[in-house]
Amino acid sequence: MRAPLVYIIVLNWNGRDDTMACLNSLQRIDYENYAVVLVDNASHDGTVEAVKKCFPSVKIIINKRNLRFAGGNNVGIEYALKQNADYVLLLNNDTEVKPDFLSELVRFAEADKIIGMVAPKIYYYDIPKMIWFAGGKIEFWKGWVSHVGIREIDNGQRDEAKDMDYLTGCCLLIRRELIEKVGKLDEKYFIYGEDADWCVRTSRAGFRLVYVPSSVIWHKVSSSSGGNLSWFKNWNKLKSQLRLMARYAKWYNWITIPVLLPAIVLMSAISGRKFGTQSSDEGNRRTGTGERS
After folding, report:
1. Domain assignment of residue 292, yes or no
2. Domain total for the chain?
3. Which long-range contacts (CB under 8 A, 24 or more apart) does 52-55 make?
4. Which positions ≥6 away from 209 have C-beta within 8 Å?
5. Is residue 293 part of a domain?
């Protein structure tokens, strides 16, 4: 029986070194029926030329302008569906993957046709056993979307596959039928929130979202791009959360959201500062690549 066809979408904007490392790690995966698509958001750092030279099998789509995270990925998704993909995998360019990561994601997704999305366990690249993502929660009464297990050292405490409210777009496998039913990423979000919005639509359409800890990748994280207390990051994160809540929260959630959400944004920033961990996502989100931290 033929394995499902998976199209891996890697979005890039002037991230040549990270992108080359990501594509190199994909060369070692054990899944057979897949294709890789690089969507470039109008880079000027030589990424496209380097990929053409080193990875001739990678399909390259060049956008004439920076379409940011949602727009850039949507271009890749549209292409994948036209190629009759059974699944689309969104993968940050600042990640590296374990060889069986995709096999494990597909295995879980194929076990139940109402599973719409699956995502792996994600570690910090520089601290290989520190968890960055082990599933996600959406707490409407707080107005907040959060990662389960973030900054925990992994001692096996997050090794159970579970249904979740939220899965990060940093690495996300999506069933074709889901995209056809609920649509693609919402490009109205400037930065942050696009993946959470997609997850809410997925759940409300009757599909499951599953965290798969047997699938593992590493996400590059640094103290660059202004730090967790930067105005740009936290202001835009606050705006995206408010957009998400305005769309989906119940009226009574707004009794607590105005009080709790600004406080949570501040505490999240301080917590990240304390641990010295800031996703390179802020820089990526400015340019259209990364995911949330």
Report:
1. no
2. 1
3. 54/20, 54/23, 55/23, 55/27
4. 115, 116, 117, 118, 119, 163, 164, 165, 166, 167, 199, 202, 203
5. no
Distance of alpha carbon 200 from alpha carbon 214, whole angstroms: 24
Q: What's the CA gap between 73 and 256, in Å, rounded?
A: 34
What is the C-alpha separation between 197 and 241, in angstroms, rounded?
10
Question: Containing domain of residue 43, as a range?
Answer: 6-287
Cα–Cα distance measured from residue 256 to residue 258, given in angstroms and rounded to the nearest whole number: 6
The torsion defined by the Cα of 219, 260, 229 and 67, in degrees rounded to 10, comes to: 60
d(C-alpha 64, C-alpha 108), whole Å: 37
CATH of the domain at 265: 3.90.550.60
pLDDT digits (tens, 9 = 90+) for 249-273: 999 999 998 888 888 777 776 665 5
Q: Nearest 5 degrees, angle CA 44-CA 280-CA 211?
A: 115
Averaged pLDDT, 78-82: 98
pLDDT tens across 31-65, in order? 999 999 999 999 999 999 999 999 999 999 999 99
Sign of CA dihedral 281, 87, 30, 55: negative
The set of residues, in sequence order, having a beta carbon less than 8 Å from that of 291 and lying 6+ positions away, is 69, 92, 168, 169, 170, 195, 279, 281, 284, 285
